[in-house]
Amino acid sequence: MNTVKTVDAVSEKVQHFPCPSCGADLLFEPQDGFLTCPYCGYKEEIPKSTAEVQERAFEQYVRARPEQMGQLANNALEVQCQNCGAKSLFMPPEVAGRCEFCGVQIVAQPKSADPIMAPEGVLPFRVSHKDAGDNLRQWLSSLWFAPSGLKQFAQPEKIHGIYIPFWVYYTNTSTEYVGQRGDYYWETETYTTTNAQGRGVQRTRQVRHTRWSNASGTVPGWFGDLLVPATTSLRSERVEALEPWDLEAVRAYNPAFLSGFKAQRYQINLEQGFERAKDLMAPVIERDVRNDIGGDEQRIDDMTTEYFKTTFKHLLLPVYAGAYQFNGRVFQIVVNGRTGEIHGDRPYSPWKIALFVVSLVILILIIVVLFRSF
Ligand SMILES: [Zn+2]
Ligand SMILES: [Zn+2]
User: Fold this and answer.
1) Which residue has the higher pLDDT, 6 or 19?
2) How much distance in Å is there from the Cα of 98 to the middle of ligand 2?
3) How far, in Å, is the centroid of ligand 1 from the Cα of 176?
């Protein structure tokens, strides 16, 4: 409590969304997208920003100056998980609670959040916490051979809404290459074989050869919407499974969308994110180079790509996440905050599997015995 007070005293303008009729904090309600009072039901629309979700120039932000950094909200707090190191940001009355990524209760005191490169856009939650919890319960009950302890996890408070940071890149490319083009040609070859009578005979056949010639050139390219997660707290295949995102519904960032939710601080910075974007572009660039070389086969000896007029957006995408420890392993569950789709790790109970196998064997034995007695 004390910490919160100090933080409040420090920030001049505290970003609160008080309910005009009862004074409680308004929370973002995913189902209608309104700020809603959980006590009296008062609703307030989040003003639609006329500002488009602008892309920013990569070069100007890759080594961000302090004045380019900001706060998610004036009264944003930050807390770091003592177990996995993930940092999350939130506004009072939200509390640190359990870590969404490793399931450990966070004991550290939240502090006033360090500035971050503020997001341009946010994809607001559309699935309510209750619906996400219902989906989770259903998913868990559908799992075969899950340990009984897992069912305890099927409580909505075990998952929490958290915005996950992403970078989106747009860039022009120019790729210079040196390589070789292979064109097939056929030649008639004479060879000797033995016929049915065991005598040697001469035959001809068509043989394929490749004529190689030098090739070089420059291939232009343009890439957009290269979505790179700025988190390392969720495994990449887990994050990929959440795709596709309806990015056309992204709204200009407004702290009101965060009211009642957390946001994770990015762990992969703008520059590191672009290195990953290059990996996404590489196979497309290579295909374009091969097309440019033409012929039947291509060899690429050297290839250099320049990236220019690169722009980016920093986006927050909505996820309900939770984690639990089972036999010393961390199992993560994520729910897409737009669609309700669930992806998660699941443990298997060796006892339940053993029991199933034993029952199956007994069943087979009974059937065998019954058949024998006929
Ligand atoms: Zn109210
Ligand atoms: Zn953690």
Assistant:
1) 19
2) 8
3) 62
CA of 56 to the centre of ligand 1 (A): 38
Predicted local confidence at residue 30, as pLDDT: 93
| Ligand 2 centroid to residue 79 C-alpha, Å | 10
Q: How far apart are CA 335 and CA 233, in angstroms?
A: 15
The reported pLDDT for the residue numbered 145 is 66
Task: Tell me the pLDDT tens digit for each residue of 210-225.
Answer: 999 999 999 999 999 9
Ligand 2 center to residue 105 CA distance, Å?
8
Q: Environment class of residue 242 by beta-carbon count within 10 Å: exposed (0-12), middle (13-18) or buried (19+)?
A: buried
The lowest-confidence range among 67-76, 141-150, 332-341 is: 141-150
Nearest ligand to residue 22 Cα: 1
Looking up tokens 């009974």 gives: 366
236: CA distance to ligand 2 center in Å? 17
Interval between CA 270 and ligand 1 midpoint (Å):
40
* Closest ligand (CA of 85): 2
The pLDDT-based confidence of 153 (bands split at 50, 70, 90) is low
Q: Find the mean pLDDT for residues 348-355.
A: 77
Q: How far is the CA of 29 from the centre of ligand 1 (A)?
A: 14
CA 25 to centroid of ligand 1, rounded, Å: 8
- Could you say which ligand is closest to the alpha carbon of residue 26? 1
For residue 10, pLDDT over 50 is answered with: no
The model's pLDDT over 75-117, given as tens digits with 9 standing for 90+, comes to: 889 999 999 999 999 988 888 889 999 988 998 889 988 888 8
For ligand 2, the distance from its centroid to the CA atom of residue 220, given in whole angstroms, is 43
Residue range 34-58, pLDDT digits in tens: 999 989 999 999 888 777 788 888 9
